Amino acid sequence: MIIIESFDELEKILFLYRKQINADYIGYKNHCIRLLNFLNYLRPIENEDREKLIIATAFHDIGLWTHNTLDYLPPSILEVKKYLTSIGRTEWIEEISIIIDMHHKITPYHGKYKLVELFRKADLVDFSLGSIRYSIPSNYISAVKKTFTNSGFHKMLLIKTLKWVPRHLHRPMPIIKW
After folding, report:
1. Is 134 in a helix, a strand, or coil?
2. CA angle, residues 139, 131, 27, in degrees to nearest 5
3. Per-residue pLDDT tens for 15-44?
4. What's the DSSP call for residue 67?
5. Which one of 7, 31, 127, 134 has the fewest CB atoms closer than 10 angstroms to its CB?
6. Is 31:118 a contact under the CB 8 Å cutoff?
7. Angle, CA 131 vertex, CA 126 and CA 137 arms, to 5°
8. Which residues of 55-89 are buried (b: 16+ CB within 10 A; e: fewer)?
9. Are 36 and 53 spatial neighbours (Cβ–Cβ below 8 Å)?
10. What is the pLDDT of residue 99?
11. pLDDT at position 1 over 90
């Protein structure tokens, strides 16, 4: 399986948030590209699904920066709704919002939209640094990680989590769903 090295629409969307993402820009962009490669490995993404998944990928963690919070799912959904409205794709709002909302679900998603579970798995492959692989071979994961380096992404997540938890003991990990 080949590694896809660029996703033009992803680049265009992320560029809109470059100043907000700031020092984490390369790390987040690389996370997004790794995620899209893992999605494509699990199930080749084409046509409308490709566009939906690229948009979902660009926005899935964006609330970390737009609202400076670890409780970033609602703000990420807010941002994607604004974007989808601006490009005339309001019919995608429900599906992409659910993809974002459920992407840290611990148990499998069994709802209406098939892309949600696919996205959840691919994000978990990257979030776990490849220790959870599903059907993706470790050599492919390693090659993707080598091509699109972490660039501090996981370290940034750890730092934000360590700052969040002591101040929010009642909801230490608001992004996790069962």
Report:
1. coil
2. 80
3. 999 999 999 999 999 999 999 999 999 999
4. S
5. 134
6. no
7. 85
8. bbbbbbbbbbbbbebbebbebbbbbbbebbeeeeb
9. yes
10. 98
11. no
